Amino acid sequence: MPTLPVPTFTQVVFVLIAAFTVISGLGVVVARNLFHSALLLAATFFGVAGLYVMLEAEFLAVTQILIYVGAVATLITFAIMLTRGAMHGETNPLNRQWGKAALFAFLFLVGLLGYLGGIPWPAPFQAIQADEGLIARLGEQLVTRYMVSLEVMGLLLMVALVGAILLARDDKP
Amino acid sequence: MNALGLLLPELILLVGALLVFLLDVAYDTDRESGASYGLVSGLFLVVAFLAAFFQMSLEPQQAFMMDIDAFAAFIKMTVFAGMALVALAGGRYMNRRTYNQGEFWTFFLIVSLAMSILAGANNLVLIYITIELLSITSYMLAAFFRDELRSAEAGMKYFLYGSVASAVMLYGLSFIYGAVGSLDLREVAGFFVQPDLTEELRVAMIPATLLALAGFAFKASLAPFYQWAPDTYEGSPTPVTTYLSTASKAAAFAVMARFFVVGLSALDVEWVPILAGLSILTMTMGNLAALRQNNVKRLLAYSSVAHAGYILMGLVAVAANAASGMDGLNGVLLYLFAYLFTNVGAFVSLMAVEETTGSVEMEAFQGLIHRAPWLAGMFTLFLLSLAGIPATGGFLGKFFVFGAAVQHQYYWLVAIALVNAGIAAFYYLRIIRTMYFGSQEDAGSRLELPLGMQATLLICTLATLWIGLYPPQVLDWVNTASQQILTAVLF
Amino acid sequence: MVPLNWYLTVAALLFALGLYGALARRNAIAVLMGIELMLNAANLNLVAFWRYGEQVMALTGQVFAILIIALAAAEAAVGLALIIAVYRDRRTVDVEELDLLQG
């Protein structure tokens, strides 16, 4: 009788975080109340940050929490409050084509999992030494090799800032 | 800092955008300042055009994840010419309808900048980020008349479709990164020619590429991702529609061509059925929907979807065999170039009628020949060029694209495309008939066109005839452009 | 050690959930939340492929992921501004009621 492999401690932690992430993600799309969706979305962002920590991308995990939880989730909450009159009381949170959408997303997932299972991704997994200074290198890459990308990103943030104010402000000059 | 000099067109536009933005912040602006912003933007676009023209004659080289070659330079010229014409013709239209003129012209130059980077970008990180800069700025320009229900709705629909498409594309790119370990197009190409590449990994790239293709297909309004296009084109301010359907499409096709030619040419997969299927679907859906439109703006929107299908035919020939894909690539570039002037002209004619009658329905065009004979004549030329009548630029584009498909013996594809061109001619002729044979009684008074529009229409007319009647110069550019990008191919 | 495929599976689940949310919800804000889930899934893929890949020190995956995080914030800001602009005029954020443009 084959024995089941004993999961290591890391694997147990991974499964817990992953389950938390996916269940929160499921909650985001099925919750009837938008506020619950937004809270669960923040929880999902935290879960993904946890997975980043497991992948030894700590800086990214911190960025994820600062920007996604701190900015995006908050922004979404504000938008929900600002448009609260719109969909209160009611009604079905799903649109007319939700059945088709569910089927499509499910088939997509099945296809995707089959695809993932069949591919031997090149995954040598090299250990990272503590003194390799990943974060310093990350910063260096951003301002050398990826300089134009970073500049484009900065431009995008400026445009988004100006445009968002322009579109959302109430008064007419 | 020699390398920075290679980014001259981009730097010029960046300076222009920031200049307009700062001027707008620094001075108490009134409604009159829009004209000067438009003038500044136009000047910077013209200078950038000259810089791109100069780049045509440079040796191909790379700088900051961008290829500086004749292909990129040609696309930049196309894009800048289109944007400058839109600024010339549509500046007054926009300035009269919005208070936020400084922001509009800043965004306008930033959109041009994004398309310029896309023309040369050879790294998928840069490509993705820049596509997003182009898209997000375009969402806001589409919704620029935020108090008009249709404009806001157009922006919102564009945003929702666009964000989903770009998320799907990013997911596909992540798998390409997983397999290759890099997102540089040349390293992607190198990955496929290494001897110990396993069959599974090679096959793994196909779904990844299809997901990535979704993003490109969205920007170029190809089936099955074109549904946003008619709605957005109809609801957006007409100058925005004009550039979305011409310059933005040229940039999208440039990226797609570079992705397939430089990145994937060594991946030995039959792309032809997929691309040809998309091409047929796009042109047929576009043309059939255009047939039943009564709103001329929406009709032109659907026709622009159909044209994306024809352009894709050229890429089919490239994908079939990159080594002999020269004629296909030539066709794509020539089509984009000719289509740009023709379609800008068509939309500016529409804008002229909209400015003077306030309507873009078919009725507004009744008897246009009596009210504005010159406008009607030029609009007729643009429509004939869109239909692909000989002696116009549109004909030459179609000739090359169809010719490339014939050369690779895709007779079925050409046959379907010809049927489609026939259908298209029918609805273009319907507009022409309305203009000439409308009753004279309800024709109304003569239309007076602003000077900017007259100049734009004249330039577009001359360019359309120039490409159609005396193409050697354009053919020369196009040839150099395709040659230089094909030298980057690994075999 | 956790196999790479586990991460990819979590990302696939998140992506499918996000896709469903983006396609099936009526409220535009909920659609936006679905899009954010999809972007997170893609980012998780990038970081996992970076960690398990051969060129760890090239950091491509991490650089891309950071740029995407910033981009998602910009996209959310613009999206919500558009939603508020539509809401102000129409008093609705229901994507099915956006029907002025069709045909």
Q: What name is given to the CATH topology of the domain at 6-85 in chain A?
A: Four Helix Bundle (Hemerythrin (Met), subunit A)
Instruction: Estimate the global geometry of chain A from the Cα principal axes.
Output: globular
Poorly predicted runs of 5 or more residues of chain C: none
- Rg result of chain A: 21 Å
Continuous helix count of chain C:
3
Amino- and carboxy-terminal Cα gap of chain C? 55 Å
Give the CA-based shape of chain C. Answer: elongated
In CATH, what is the homologous superfamily of the domain at 6-85 in chain A? Answer: NADH-ubiquinone/plastoquinone oxidoreductase chain 6, subunit NuoJ
Q: On the 0-100 scale, what is the average pLDDT of chain C?
A: 87
Strand content of chain A: under 5%
Overall number of strands of chain A: 0
* Low-pLDDT runs of chain A: none
Helix content of chain A: 55-70%
Element string of chain A (H = helix, E = strand): HHHHHH
CATH C-level label of chain C = Mainly Alpha
Strand content of chain C: under 5%
Nearest-angstrom radius of gyration of chain C? Answer: 17 Å
Please sum up the structure shown.
With about 170 residues, chain A is mainly alpha-helical.
